[in-house]
Amino acid sequence: xxxxxxxxxxxxxxxxxxxxxxxxxxxxxxxxxxxxxxxxxxxxxxxxxxxxxxxxxxxxxxxxxxxxxxxxxxxxxxxxxxxxxxxxxxxxxxxxxxxxxxxxxxxxxxxxxxxxxxxxxxxxxxxxxxxxxxxxxxxxxxxxxxxxxxxxxxxxxxxxxxxxxxxxxxxxxxxxxxxxxxxxxxxxxxxx
Length: 192
Prior knowledge:
Blueprint: H1 2-28, H2 30-33, H3 69-75, E1 80-85, H4 90-106, E2 111-116, H5 122-131, E3 142-150, E4 156-163, H6 169-186
Helix pairs in contact: 4-6
């Protein structure tokens, strides 16, 4: 009985050490974490897809996007998350909270910008102009995630997804994971 207890205890200690080593290993090599990941949203033109051109529900459907230079520069290092907001907007406050929680988990893997439409920040206008789905009006909050994805021809292209309202924390997490995953797969082959 004593031998069985010692054997079980040794097994538990060994298992704990192995799990700790696996965790430390994964934490020290972030790109390895994404090897077995399956994205929740794929490139396409549907409402939940990653878009290379404006999606079907946009007033500019099928047209190419003119990505602002500062975003393309940031994309050379990692995926980009942009939050365009107004200070007097209830949905913006909720979205800001949800983004903050997502950044606690994935902040080292993305470049984050919050741009205020209230401050006449030219970047806020550029984001709305480039990534708004409406061809007539701009809405806040607008959240945009930008990454790199292999297109149908095998060439790496800039892909994006935007939402013009508050998203759930789960939705933000899902798109952030996808953005990081696609970026790790594609960034080495992007001709900047």
